[in-house]
Amino acid sequence: RQISHRIFVNRSLHLENIKFYGFDMDYTIAEYKSPQYEQLGFNLVKERLVTLGYPVEILQFEYDPSFPVRGLWFDSLYGNLLKVDAYGNILVCVHGFEFLKHSQVYELYPNKFLQLDESRVYVLNTLFNLPETYLLACLVDFFTNSPQYAEQVDKTGVKYGELFMSFRSIFQDVRGAVDWVHIYGDLKKKTLENLDEYVKKDERLPMVLSRIRESGAKLFLLTNSDYNFTDKIMTFLFDFPHGAKPEEPHRDWKTYFDTIVVDARKPLFFGEGTILRQVDTTTGALRVGTHMGPLQVNQVYSGGSCDVFTKLIGAKGKDVLYVGDHIFGDILKSKKIRGWRTFLIIPELVQELHVWTDKCQLFAELQRLDVKLGDLYKNLDSSAKEKPDISSVRTCIRDVTHKMDLAYGMMGSLFRSGSRQTFFSSQVVRYADLYAATIMNLMYYPFSYMFRAP
């Protein structure tokens, strides 16, 4: 298979045993166009911050897609974006747009290490976090370098006259503004007004879902979005003159699923959940009362919990493959709490694989240097008194790692820094049984396929 068509494996999985395929909508079935969609979110959050009293100069910030990468930690104490490995060891530290040197990192973080403490660290894990990642860097850079703001001695914020602004309060304002834009603001409205601009459309989608059903499995949609937004996005995605095959007539998107759940409120859905209600699809309004009977085909439900849902559809856990883009909300919780099999969608894989193949000589060079480093210690044991000079090899390793990182963008690869795995990468390995760039890659495998972990 072409590398771009592949599905990658962390844990062996036999598709023949999967009776239910569940899909998230945002960034899974509906893939948003990058960087246009991030640009829209970025601009709306900027505008919201200005209405909250932030200086109008911030409206001049322009979104730069080459800077942010998913999976960074934001340290709200010092206002730094951190790229860390699986254990919290710091690989890259950026204050605004200034990449800190080793000595500066050690000053702030003894042992170049930080514990994942949720009261201090926010993990920017989702594709929705990309505009926010870049905006945090812009704001920290702006306030640190503007002459009217003085940086605090303890490096936890800036002063403007008698006014103190901590990096934590800036972070809280940005977080609040992002949530406001998503829930009450114009993000959804502007997306729906210009679907061609912001949403990718792929005529293979009806075919993929139809083939899953032909294999004998059932399909469900499980999304946090409300019904009206879901309906408009899905109607657009299935808006082709034909159905699953060119000779078949067009069908309503709802007919491709056995069960549809909106307003799921994941990850809460995988725990205590909320009340399961039926949605009136003509008005989008919820019907009063809890839905108690069996789930009906072509009906849309709102809320609920995994417990109730799996009983109603007759699923056990291991026979469900859930496909989503959100490591925490979709993948981690569905696996840890419910034992569902998991398939993570990582759109960035296309670029990552392209760089990997394009720059393979750099990876080969790094391996060669690793061998060379080992050779310097080859004939030495615990009795050795002399120390080999490894400084030139270490410098070369650092240079090659830096070149590799820059090939991916300013913050480097999503999965690694040199030969070290990132925190994001470790989570993928731990919680995703399968992963791929798009759900369309299911087209290139038979539904009897045995995915074998290496």
TrEMBL record:
Cofactor: record remark: Binds 1 Mg(2+) ion per subunit.
Binding site for GMP: 26
Short name of one Pfam family: 5_nucleotid
Similarity field: Belongs to the 5'(3')-deoxyribonucleotidase family.
Keywords: Hydrolase, Magnesium, Metal-binding
Cofactor (UniProt): Mg(2+)
Positions with a binding annotation for Mg(2+): 24, 325
UniProt-listed GO biological process terms: GMP metabolic process
Active site residues per record: 24 (nucleophile), 26 (proton donor)
InterPro entries named in the record: HAD-like_sf, HAD-SF_hydro_IG_5-nucl, HAD_sf, Pur_nucleotidase
Species assigned in the record: Aedes albopictus (Asian tiger mosquito)
Coiled coil: none
CDD domains: HAD_cN-II (cd07522)
Source superkingdom: Eukaryota
GO molecular function, one term: 5'-nucleotidase activity
PANTHER family on file: 5'-NUCLEOTIDASE DOMAIN-CONTAINING, CYTOSOLIC PURINE 5'-NUCLEOTIDASE
Protein name: Putative had superfamily protein
